[in-house]
Amino acid sequence: MTLYECSPNSYFGSDSSSWDVWVKSNGAICNSNLLTPRDWDSCITPVASWSIGASGQFLPPHVGIPLGGDTGKYYMLEIHYDNPNGLKIQDRSGFRIHYTENLRPNDGGMMIAGVSISDTQIIPPEQKLYRNVGICGPSCTNVNYLLALF
């Protein structure tokens, strides 16, 4: 389960007011024949993530993840289910996020390494083996990044 921040003005013709319709939406099933709205393609900045077996995401007291800002922000919650028998289960998953106006001295964030998730990276059902290759060229790997991991 991952919470993404969206960028409402990410393409020509998109603006914040067009997002109001999605606030009232029930979401979409990613493997349905229905296409997800183009606006949702801008929801690529991870804010929080959790999966089975994880204890949660805890930051040191001097670090916070910036949310909101001067303009309104939209967020998309993506959840993947494993329910092969199609049992009727009511999901109560979610995040508990503590929000404060007292900014922390350091901003934190999440880094995703690997292939970007997109509709071109769908694993067909019932595959015993599926390979997906991501390439990071020299223009990326020749740069030295300073990361503070905790």
TrEMBL record:
GO MF annotation terms: copper ion binding; dopamine beta-monooxygenase activity
Residue ranges occupied by any Copper type II ascorbate-dependent monooxygenase N-terminal domain in the UniProt entry: 1-86
Pfam families membership: Cu2_monooxygen
Taxonomic superkingdom: Eukaryota
A cellular-component GO term for this protein: extracellular space
InterPro entries: Cu2_ascorb_mOase_N, Cu2_ascorb_mOase_N_sf, DBH-like, PHM/PNGase_F_dom_sf
GO biological process: dopamine catabolic process; norepinephrine biosynthetic process; octopamine biosynthetic process
Protein name: Copper type II ascorbate-dependent monooxygenase N-terminal domain-containing protein
Organism (species): Megaselia scalaris
Source organism phylogeny: Eukaryota, Metazoa, Ecdysozoa, Arthropoda, Hexapoda
